Here is the input.
Amino acid sequence: MYKGKVLVTLKKGVLDPQGDAVKRSFHVLNYKEVEEVRVGKYIEVLLNQDSKEAAYRELVEMCDRLLANPVIEQYEVEVAEVE
Here is the structure.
């Protein structure tokens, strides 16, 4: 059994209205030093695969097909064996 961790973020240069809203809220709360906020997604997936490589390949495929929009988002994948 393997646990996959995925971090999905917007590509550089893509506008982030949600991040801008959080930044404005920080400023309202008097956190004026906040320069930029980018909002992403963190996803964990438990995979019943025979090998770490197979789990990694399947997770990358899931990212390409469902978890991330490759036009505007990038992702990082990590896979570790679960005991």
Observations:
- The mean pLDDT is 97.
- The first strand starts at residue 2 and ends at 10.
